[in-house]
Design brief:
This protein is mainly α. The chain has one domain. Helix 2 packs across helix 3, helix 2 packs parallel to helix 4 and helix 3 crosses helix 5. The chain is rod-shaped and about 110 Å long.
Length: 159
């Protein structure tokens, strides 16, 4: 009987040793586009989005006459940068981070300031102060979507 107990204890100790020292199965890393975590510079991107909103609102808050002539370049540049980065991030985050990234970036670009910028863009378009051709191709995609239901009723700088 003593040998049976000794053999049982040896088997138990060997099993515990095997569990302790056996290599751990590491799960495969999640593929890109399937919820990859945001990178360390996301805090900088958040600040950048706030700065782009601020610049776009400053451009869209200019007096109507300041959107023509020499000042027009600044007006278009401020709005172009905003729409470029918003469209670019809206395309890249889902590619990099999957569905979670798509939801995250949609939420990031859905603030009350973003809605205000869209309304001011629609108004500027309707009054004839900007057109999609004023924007570079990436920004133009989003501008076209924002103004799709607007009709030009003004002559903008031609007044």
């Amino acid at each position: 009987m003593n040998r049976a107990w000794l053999l049982l204890w040896v088997l138990v100790i060997l099993q515990i040793a095997a569990w302790t020292f056996a290599p751990v199965d590491t799960p495969a890393s999640a593929p890109t586009g399937d919820g990859e975590p945001l990178d360390p510079i996301e805090a900088i991107r958040i600040e950048s989005r706030n700065s782009q909103r601020k610049d776009a609102m400053a451009a869209l808050d200019l007096p109507w006459r300041s959107r023509c002539g020499e000042d027009r370049k600044g007006f278009i540049s401020g709005t172009n940068q905003y729409y470029y980065h918003r469209q670019n991030q809206s395309e890249r985050y889902p590619e990099i981070h999957g569905k979670l990234g798509a939801k995250y970036i949609a939420d990031q670009w859905s603030t009350s300031d973003d809605r205000r910028i869209e309304r001011l863009t629609q108004e500027a378009y309707a009054r004839g102060y900007l057109k999609p051709a004023d924007f570079e191709p990436v920004a133009r995609k989003l501008v076209v979507a924002v103004i799709k239901d607007e009709r030009v009723t003004g002559k903008g700088c031609a007044d």
